[in-house]
Prior knowledge:
This protein is mainly alpha-helical.
Amino acid sequence: MTNEMKPVRVRFAPSPTGRLHLGGGRTALYNYLLAKKTGGKFILRIEDTDRKRYIENAEQELMDGLHWLGIDWDEGPDKPGEFGPYRQSERKEIYLKYAEQLIEQGDAFYCFCTPERLHRMKEEQEKRKEFPHYDGQCRDIPLEEARKRIVAGEPYVIRFKTPKEGVTTVHDAIRGEITVENRTIDDYIIVKSDGWALYHLAAMVDDHLMGITHVIRGSEWIPTLPLHHMIIQAFGWEEPVWIHLSVFLKPSGKGKMSKRESADLIKDGYSIFLTDFKDLGYLPEAVTNWIALMGWSYDDHTEFFTMEDLIKDFSIDHLNPSPAAINFTKLDYFNGVHIRALPVEDLAHRIKPFFEAKGYHPDDETLLKITPIIQERIVTLDDAPEIAGFFFEDHVTPQTEDLIQKGLTAEKCAEIAEKSYQVLADLPEISPRIGEPEMRALVEELGLKPAQVFGVLRVAVTGRKVSPPLFESMEIIGKDIVLERIKTAAKMLREYQSRNN
Length: 501
Ligand code: GLU
């Protein structure tokens, strides 16, 4: 179906009231993919009319987050286009003009009810166990009278006059028909007393004026979808294709993630905020792959997707409206897969800042040598300094206890170190090709297990019990330093032996 689609105009319309979370990132991604797929346009619109909840840096952070994922827009606050401005706070007058039109047509009305009256009304409705709704007090005030009250300075809001009879049916491209009884739709406020239009009006006006053909947004807008449909109808505009995405559930699959739960996540190296993933060592390619599959699939088995693949394969009819549980294990899996798919130079370049953040000064030559041997082993980029930081340390400080291998005495381990020294000292270099065969022969000769002999060497040379492959590591460290470290380890073990005898 999507293959023959005409170029769409779609938008991502975040409110700068908080941080960009995974759900927002996914909404942006699907919009972007559809635009790219069809040769259409992707618009970034900032919905910042809620001045009370406005957060200063939020707009910049969400732009940075989208860019990090690899998403760019064709029109937006920083990319003037034919349909701007793209910040709703710069469009106040436009919305008022359309609100006025609805008033004139009789599809909206001025409401002068005071907050106190509305509060009382709500309490009484609760007592009567009715669902909360506006009781219609100002619906029929003649327009002339209303205007006089406004001129006299009475505060007011503008409400949409929803029809109270019949039903409204709206079609969602992935959910099918959504039908509600009109009497259950409130007379929603569309312009607040401060003169700012609310989402219901502002977004419909903008989507129309900006030529939006498909609205892909979160499922939290399903309850007010009939209202949006009515507003569009009242203006006589063409309706966009509606697509309401699935909800994200917490990893347990039970309910949405609470604020506290998301704050706790970071301790485990995870987050629900897009801009955290970079510092946590995730690749944008992996995060994109991961979120793309939370609500969309190509078939029942393909999992690896680059952005290019996604653009090629994306289609609306494969979007899935069922709730998706956030699965961080899967994210780790994708990160590993994408790390292994990177060219060595690229990966080296990406792990460098993680070494620097840990106080290392990695030189590019060594970095390029160690990258291939850790590429298979790291899950996140910040694993790199943990398992390979020692390459940039002048000295390693092994613990004697670590040098002593399971089932062996300090004396035996000292002997291993000394014999290894002898074998390795005679070689022109120490590498998997030259070194490993000789050492394996030594293992035989000593009648020990490879893990025991190599365990001593590993701790001696790298200072740790777990390291990248031993012979590759020794080759990078270089023969002289390797020998010096083995000698030191042998000495430590002998000292330990005499202390404990
Ligand atoms: N400003 C709305 C929000 O952040 C946008 C919803 C939409 O995409 O229309 O939830």
